[in-house]
Design goal:
Elements: H1 2-5, H2 7-13, E1 17-18, E2 29-39, E3 47-58, H3 63-78, E4 91-100, E5 103-104, E6 111-122
Parallel strand pairs: 1-2
Antiparallel strand pairs: 2-3, 3-6, 4-6, 5-6
Length: 123
Amino acid sequence: MALRRDPTVSALVGERVYDEPPSDVAFPYLRLGSIDLGPLRSDGAKAWDVAFSIEAHSRPDAGRVEASRIAGAVIACLDERAEAVPVEGLSLRWVQFVTSTAARAPDGKSYVAPAAFQAVLGT
């Protein structure tokens, strides 16, 4: 995965990049957030519009600063870098950063900064 191979991202979270983090996960870490997929109507070619997010989770004592720093590294790794994200059986035509925010996580202690992206997948 591109995020694990990126030196800046891995310096911040190590190998802790998850789809579903373990219950005893160590902070900080990244989690694949929401994925929304819809058809992209074009000239007969099959393509899909994809909105997805990568969540940066930080320790309570490191706060928004750490979460934002990790999200920034994710954005630098993926924005306008479709070649960095292999998709088996399809091609990622483009990927663009859309928005990010940093806030207290639902546990009331740690912080999370989701980075949202828009992408197009094709055959």
